[in-house]
Amino acid sequence: MASSVSVLLLLCMAAAVASAQLSPTFYDTSCPNALSTIKSAVTAAVNKENRMGASLLRLHFHDCFVQGCDASVLLDSGGEQGALPNAGSLRGFDVIANIKAQVEADCKQTVSCADILAVAARDSVVAGFVRWQTSRRPGQLHLHPIIEFDLVLVQLGGPSWTVPLGRRDSTTGSASLANSDLPPPFFNLSDLIGAFSNKGFSATEMVALSGAHTIGQAQCKNFRDHIYNDTNINSGFASSLKANCPQPTGSGDGNLAPLDTTTPYVFDNAYYSNLLNQKGLLHSDQELFNGGSTDNTVRNFASNSAAFSSAFAAAMVKMGNLSPLTGSQGQIRLTCSKAN
C-alpha cells in the first residue's frame, strides 16, 4: 500500500512540474499563427470526414498513455502503431502530417508534433462539419432535388480548454508499453480503475475521460464478446448490432458501429445515458455502470451535462501533462513520422 501511494505521489509531483514548465503562450512570439493554423486544418479535416474528430482525440490519448505526451505514437519505426491496441485502428496520421507541414512552412522546427497532437485533440472536440439536411417538410410534395436540401453546419459541440504548450518530441516509441498501458475493451471496472490510477487519475477522472466515447466508432472484434456473451446489455440493442457483427471470429472483424448510437457526431453526455439503459457498445463501457463504485458518477454525468463537460476538460488538461519532454529533452521533429 505504501509503495502504491509513493508512486501516485511521484506521478502527481511529476505532473505538477510538467505543468509549471508548459505554458499556453509558449508559441506567442516564436510561432504566433500556430494555433490558428492547427484549428483551421482540424476543422477542414472534420468537415471532410466527421469521424476524424474522434480519431484525432483517440490519437492524443494513445500517445499520452504510452511514455507520456511525446508524439511517440506518430513514429513509423517506433513500434507503437503496430501494438495490439493500435494496429489497424489508429487514424489521423495524415491530418497531423498535413498540419505539421503547414506549421513548418511558417515556423521551421519550432512547434513540436506532441503539441500539435494536444491542440488538435482539443480542436477536434469542438470542430464543426457541414452536412446536407432536407428542407422538405413531412408530407410536402417533392420539389426540385437541388432545392430540397440545405447545407447545415453541425458542431461536435464539446467543451474547450486551454492547452499548455512547450512539449518536445521523443526519438523512440515503445510497443511493449503500448500493449501494457493502454486499457483494452475487455477490461472490467477494477482493471480500468487500476490502469488510470497508474497514470495518476482518479476513478471519477477515468469515467470523465471515457466520455470521449460519445463520438467515434469501434470495430466488431472489440465488441463481439459483449453483444453475444455478456448479460448486462439491452437485448434489443445487442440484436441490432449482430447483423453487422457476426459471431464467428474473423467474420466482419473490422465492421464499425458508433460508440454512441444516440448522437454519434455530437460531443455530449448521451454516452452516459446509454450506459444507464445498458447500451454501452464495449464491455469496458458498460462496466462503468454495472452495480459498481462508479455508478453514481455515471448518473451524475448523464443528468448534468455541465458537470461532464467541466470534468472532461479538466481531465484532458491533466492527461496532456503526462510526462512531457521539455527544455532540452527530446527534439522538435521536422517530420512527425520519423526522428530527425
UniProtKB/TrEMBL annotation:
GO terms for molecular function: heme binding; lactoperoxidase activity; metal ion binding. Gene3D superfamilies: 1.10.520.10, Peroxidase, domain 2. Ca(2+) 1 binds at residues 63, 66, 68, 70, 72, 80. The keyword Glycoprotein applies. It catalyses: 2 a phenolic donor + H2O2 = 2 a phenolic radical donor + 2 H2O. It is found in: Secreted. Heme b binds at residue 213. GO terms for biological process: hydrogen peroxide catabolic process; response to oxidative stress. Substrate binds at residue 183. Residues 1-20 form the signal peptide. The keyword Glycoprotein applies. Ca(2+) 2 binds at residues 214, 260, 263, 268. Binds 2 calcium ions per subunit. Binds 1 heme b (iron(II)-protoporphyrin IX) group per subunit. Its EC number is 1.11.1.7. Residues 21-340 form the Plant heme peroxidase family profile domain. It is an enzyme of class 1 (oxidoreductase). It comes from the Eukaryota. Its main location: secreted. Keywords: Calcium, Disulfide bond, Glycoprotein, Heme, Hydrogen peroxide, Iron, Metal-binding, Oxidoreductase, Peroxidase, Secreted, Signal. The record marks 58 as: Transition state stabilizer. Belongs to the peroxidase family. Classical plant (class III) peroxidase subfamily. Removal of H(2)O(2), oxidation of toxic reductants, biosynthesis and degradation of lignin, suberization, auxin catabolism, response to environmental stresses such as wounding, pathogen attack and oxidative stress. This is Peroxidase. It comes from Urochloa decumbens.
